[in-house]
Amino acid sequence: MSGITDFDALRRALADNSEEPEGPARNARAEELLAEAEKLNIPLAVIEALGHQLKVYNYSSEKDKMFVPFARLLRMWDERPEDFDEDEAHSLHWVFKWMSAGMLDQPHVPLASIEKWLAEMEHRYRLAGHSERAVRSAEFSVAAHIGDLARAERAYAAWLAADRDRMADCHACELHGQGAWQVRCGRDAEALRLWRPVLEGEFACAHEPHTVLASSLAPLLRLGRLEEARAHHLRGFRLVRPMESMRGAYADHVEFCALTGNEARGLELLAERPAYFTDTGHPRSRLDFMAVVALLMDRLTELGLGAQRVPGPAGRTWTARELAAHARAEATDLAERFDRRNGTGAVGDRIRARMAQRPLAERLPLGVRTVRPAPVPPPAAPAAPDAPAGPGLPALLAEARQRSDTLRPHALEAWAAVARAAPDGAGLPARDRAEIAEHEAMARGPEGLPLFERAAELYAEAGDPGEALAARARAAYVRALTGEVDAALATVTDLYDEVLALYADEGTGVRQTASVVMSRARVLMRRVHEAAGEGIRDGRFAERALAAAEAAVREVLALVEGCGGEDVRLAARAAEARAMLAELAALGGDAQRAAELFRRAVDAYLAAGLPWFAVEYQVQIAALAHQAGDLAGAERALRAALEHGGPYVEPIGRAQLHLQLAEVLGGRDAPEEAAEHALQAAHWADEAGESGTLGAWARQQLGGFLLRRGRYAEAAEVLESALADLEAETHGDGVVVQARWWLGDCLGELGEHRAAAEQRLKAADLARHWPEQQDHATLAHLAAESLGNAGLAAEADRAYARAGELWRSLGNAPFLVRSLRARAWLALGEESGAAQARALMAEAVRECEAALAVAGADREELAAELGGTHRQFAELLARSASEEAADAAIRAAFEAALEQMTRAVAVFAGLGAAGLHSRTGAELGAGWLEADLGRPAEAAAHARAVLAAYADTDDADDTARARREEAAQLLEAAREGEDAGQG
């Protein structure tokens, strides 16, 4: 089955299985290995196999299987303790703690048995000479679980007072337990203070900071520290996701989603772990999991999504409402089993409180793609006879007219409500019907053109010929927007002549006249933009279009300026006209004047109390500032746009504003605030239904900003989410390459080198088609580094070779040399690879020398690279000497290494002050080689050269201080060598 014939083979197999992912497959292999160990007839082999089996059970969903192998180990210890070596004896006592916790987590184990076990543990630890710290910690866990708070407090104090020894849990695990108790006591801030060393990486272990990150989520939310909570969720879930044994921590992340308006992400988490619904090996974590499932399903039901299908236990389909009932029943039953065992109601009280929690944030954007599910509307029910009616038609009309007359947001929606309340305008006067028709036409866009004509007829019927002309003029502008500019211009010109004549005869007012004059100006502006779009910039047509538009806009200003008074419509016309003049100035190449006119338009809108209309032009100001290199000005304008737009800007507009501001802030080297705006951009893109387009772009940017801030785990989560939607056809292959590049950087920092290599290779494959090959070469080189770090030497060598050829084609000698050096080190690590390693390093020297012979301005960089290559060559030769069989060969390798190190000294010396530290490092390397070759006088000479080089350097220079200390050590070694030679 396994080919295990001796103890060493068994140990290798046990070690290999330890590296496998947690779960039933690893557990089954541990059982096979125990059977193999029993065949060897070596007691220690069986002991080690039992210990391995116990460990994999503990770190899995089958924790209930731990007790059998432990009972067997304990019996073997009692019968023949001499069969245990020191490590296994320590391990046996260590897992006493696992048994204590394991019993507590199984409600079928009587409380009396647990108490008896605690006493047994205390007795055995005392016999073995161990501190009582671990015992008191275990006692605390029992007391806290059953709700004996007084005993828990005593045990907690005794735990902290006892000395730490080899049996104490690691610092990270202890701090997790201590912080969890503070949370239980309502001291969230104190818990977070205790957890800080774990969260900041000072203490860590196999399951930390995983559980601390998860446990910190609810306390952070309760304290209002939402940014930290978001970061801990993204960072922590990445750690928990691959670990089957961490159902309790996984539940904390599901709970976080339910409490922050991220119900959709909560469902995604449930779908990733279907076995968590049914695994029974660890009832306590199943209790926690089912409780938060009930919490999440109740939340969905509250949102009107009780009928939505959700992930649940296998074997049937589930709605949110059904799963809520099932999960609550399961959690309640489990809690009752624990409470019956414990003789208290503590577990049930905690679980009921957990299921009854209310959201702590309406919606906390996470950066990853999570779109709030849309409620399923309930079937319409007939109104009760005495149900109160909604607003009457007169009230609806008054509201709609007030909104449209004052240019308030949502005027179209208000008129739509009027239309629903009065189908076909039955019973309404012609004026009201005209307004209903016109606003419906505005809402429909090009499809509403016939309604404009109907509105005009009704305005005429109502005795308002000026408004009838204005309606037809607005229709002409809509027609221009569809591309029929010439026809629209002909129509609006006739209407313009009519309204001016009517105005001159006092047959209409300024507002109606201004509406027609503005529509004509808008149509003429469309002609200008059409000409600009077709590239007709210098022809007479474009000049005439520009002049005609400007004249029309100035007519608007001449008509309305000074006539506004209380009429915000006229004030808005004047502001829009200034914005039009700004657009014309920009098209004419006068960016400075354009910016000034846009600012005047913005000021006019603000003065009129219409800040939401200013947003579009503040964005234009930002764009002009950005083009002029004025990032501060662009930032000010975009911040103002967000401030003035407020809740009135549609979600897609808010997403665009936040994303533009993020890009500007990123350019100003403010990645922290840039990340916040990119996060908001992703959130609003999701709300607008643009997750896969603008949302993906925002997430890509957010990932980059998080990477710049060193928040690698969060950045990786966000970038992986972005890459699920990024497509070269939609977003451009440059965006995709950058996202994979950044993700590779994150994964490398997280130690996930194989995954980093995969991302970098995919990015390189896209970039290989680009005309400029610098990025392709860089990505190939980075992928090679990742492959090497992942232990994939052959694959790394091929990637370095590919990168080297690209560097050669680009004429980039330094990186070509680096790729050759990297290949040399990889070759040295392979069996019988010393000769290949030397050949590659020699080639690196030749390439560097050849480039230096023809170098120009980059001579100093190449010289430093050559010196570094000689030094690495020396180190490689010295390291390869251990592979040589004969002493003579070893000496020859050291002599060759000394020759290369001496060359390095010479090259660095030629760089003067710039090469000082490099030269002294090589001097010391040469000195140690001289000492190894038995030449103490020469070694001492190198040491003195280093001391002389730093004679005038103070101790503030860390490198100089370290070099002097090492030179002193070398001098001492040389003196000892001289003394030994004389003796």
Topology readout:
Elements: H1 7-18, H2 24-39, H3 43-58, H4 67-79, H5 86-94, H6 96-104, H7 111-127, H8 133-146, H9 149-161, H10 171-184, H11 188-199, H12 210-215, H13 217-222, H14 226-240, H15 247-259, H16 263-272, H17 283-302, E1 309-310, E2 318-319, H18 320-342, H19 346-355, H20 393-405, H21 411-421, H22 430-444, H23 449-461, H24 465-481, H25 485-504, H26 510-533, H27 540-560, H28 568-587, H29 591-607, H30 611-627, H31 631-645, H32 651-667, H33 671-687, H34 691-708, H35 712-723, H36 728-731, H37 733-749, H38 753-767, H39 774-789, H40 793-810, H41 813-828, H42 834-853, H43 859-880, H44 887-909, H45 916-932, H46 936-949, H47 958-982
Antiparallel strand pairs: 1-2
Tell me about this structure.
With 983 residues, the chain is mostly helical. It is built from 47 helices and two strands. Strands 1-2 form a two-stranded antiparallel ribbon. A hairpin with a 7-residue loop joins β1 and β2. α15 (247-259) packs parallel to α17. It is flat. The relative contact order is 0.03. The model is unreliable at 376-388 (pLDDT under 50). This is Tetratricopeptide repeat protein. Residues 370-390 are annotated as: Disordered. It comes from Streptomyces tricolor.
| Biggest β-sheet description | 2 strands, antiparallel
Say how many strands there are.
2
Average pLDDT taken over every residue: 91
Largest beta sheet: strand ordering: 1-2
Number of helices: 47
Distance between the amino and carboxyl termini: 62 Å
What proportion strand? under 5%
Silhouette: flat
Q: C-alpha Rg, in Å?
A: 38 Å
| Computed structural class | mainly alpha
Low-confidence stretches: 376-388
